[in-house]
Specification:
alpha/beta, 2 domains, 7-stranded mixed sheet, 14 helices, 7 strands, globular, binds zinc ion, DUF2817, DUF2817 domain-containing protein
């Protein structure tokens, strides 16, 4: 499998490659869009296997917009490498391509409302989760001027916070999600984003009737360069956790520390929404990341916001920042790209085999 057969340079090209590979591999294809401004921004769903299969694996790309370049490539690699042919009669795969197409198409991690879709699956009828640490940092984190001095000031604010509260607490307040600053980092939104509504519709239309569901949500930015990093949210010792360990191995599932820090208390993850939409149907799976620049990614998340809200200077300067952002989430390096599609096929096949052999309790 060659990396350039799976990776794309733009969202429309990724979409075209996905749809072509899905069709060639015999999928039923569906399209969803909720963006009134553009019929070109769509989420595609490819369904492989028996429509009445009791076991179904959901694989999602593009939750974080431009991270979808990698997730899409992994999906395409699995389809092109004969993955669908390995499905037994009782196991199906539901591929969701570009669940956040605006972010994918516009090279941003967020939706058109600056919402981190992976913090948006909360109950908005209840009081919103508080993040006092972020409140303390916000004003200095995101300088209007992206300059050495602005960055130094932001770093000083984070250093001060860390010296008082510790490095885990700093990471937690930066990453867990916040619901107070619409122009801030990891903003979870004030209501459900349209991709959130669409995911619910996809679950209704393609997962109803399943007795067991597996999932992989493909991401990039955490872990060693070109290496996978699993975030598994099932309680330790729980049967679901044991399933995930059986599929992918304890060394990948247990004790994973993103950026060497305690895992943030993430709010509103897409996989939480998936479980909610599925009701009592057991859902087993993980967020799978591929590492790029490690801790330096925290700065890149802020660059995403600067490009959205403050970008100034020459077009050349803005283009350079944009290229930096894209390379941070999806390195142009063919070694990295080759590594991700190899691992991706492996983890997909392991999940399919694990799901098919998941014994009833
Ligand atoms: Zn992500």
């Amino acid at each position: 499998m060659e990396f350039h057969d799976c990776y794309a340079l733009t969202y429309p090209s990724a979409r075209e490659k996905f749809r072509a590979a899905a069709q060639a591999a015999g999928a039923a294809l569906y399209t969803y869009s909720g963006n009134a401004n553009s019929d070109k921004l769509a989420t595609d769903v490819a369904y492989f296997g028996n429509m009445n299969a009791q076991r179904r694996l959901v694989a999602v790309s593009g939750t974080h917009g431009l991270e979808g370049f990698c997730g899409s490539a992994v999906q395409i690699a699995w389809m092109k490498s004969g993955g669908p042919a390995l499905l037994d009669d009782n196991t199906a795969v539901v591929m969701i391509h570009a669940i956040n197409p605006w972010g994918f198409a516009n090279l941003s991690r967020t939706t058109e409302n600056n919402v981190d879709l992976n913090r948006n699956f909360i109950d908005f009828s209840k009081p919103l989760p508080a993040n006092p640490g972020y409140h303390q940092l916000h004003a200095r984190l995101l300088p209007a001027e992206w300059s050495t001095e602005g960055m130094r000031n932001a770093q000083a604010a984070m250093d001060e916070y860390e010296s008082t509260h510790g490095r885990d607490a700093l990471f937690d307040c930066l990453a867990r999600g916040q619901y107070d600053y619409a122009d801030g980092l990891n903003y979870g939104g004030a209501q459900r984003e349209w991709p959130n509504l669409i995911l619910e519709q996809i679950v209704e239309e393609h997962l109803a009737g399943a007795c067991k569901v597996g999932f992989i949500d493909w991401h990039t930015g955490i872990g060693e360069y070109g290496e996978p990093f699993f975030l598994c949210f099932h309680d330790s010792e729980s049967p679901l956790r044991q399933q995930a360990v059986r599929w992918w191995g304890a060394e990948r599932i247990e004790g994973a520390q993103p950026h060497g820090r305690a895992r943030p208390n993430y709010q509103g993850l897409l996989c939480f929404g998936l479980q909610q939409f599925l009701g009592d149907t057991p859902l087993c799976g993980a967020v799978i990341e591929f590492g790029t620049r490690g801790w330096h990614m925290r700065r890149i998340l802020r660059l995403d916001l600067w490009l959205k809200f403050h970008a100034s200077g020459s077009q050349e300067r803005i283009d350079m920042h944009r290229a930096d952002l894209l390379d941070a989430f999806c390195p142009v390096d063919e070694i990295w790209r080759g590594s991700t599609i190899r691992y991706g096929q492996q983890f997909m096949n392991e999940a399919v085999a694990g799901l098919a052999s998941w014994e009833d309790a």
